[in-house]
Design goal:
By secondary structure, this protein is of the alpha+beta class. It is 32% helix and 30% strand. The strands form two sheets. A five-stranded mixed sheet has the order 4-1-7-5-6. Helix 1 packs parallel to helix 3. The protein binds zinc ion. Zinc ion binds next to strand 1 and helix 1. The site of zinc ion (ZN) has 5 residues, from strand 1 and helix 1.
Amino acid sequence: MKIGFGYDVHRFAENRSLVLGGVTIPYEYGLLGHSDADVLIHALMDSLLGACALGDIGTHFPDTDSAYKNIDSMLLLRKVAIMIKNEGYCLGNADITVVAQKPKISPYYKQIRCNIADALHTDINNINVKATTEEGLGFSGRLEGIKCYSVCLLQNSEEHHEII
Ligand SMILES: [Zn+2]
């Protein structure tokens, strides 16, 4: 088994859609970024790549490459899923925490978990999404942006199949 950790931050900006976990959430601000700025998926991808010692998303999808301008981060997650598989691993589980004062994320947990489970070819019960505020403190509390943490466990695909 391998464990991975990911962390990402994006600042709020006007005239941008707020996309979290592949879900467009109605809010007065979106997140600024070269891609769709899906901070949740970025943290998740970094945890998956980290578990496999494959660096980070900046290495694989550089923001200097116009191919990734405004790209749907769910497409990048599907690419990362292939990289993990090629390394001989599959997802055990992932636990993701969104830190945002606003908006309320909980109405979208189920859809986000479905999106991620579909992209990673796993059961929805292997994906947890939760959110917290920082009680008005720090940049998230000042409504300047959103941060996200992700931890994941990967299992060796071959050993996993032997057990089954
Ligand atoms: Zn990011």
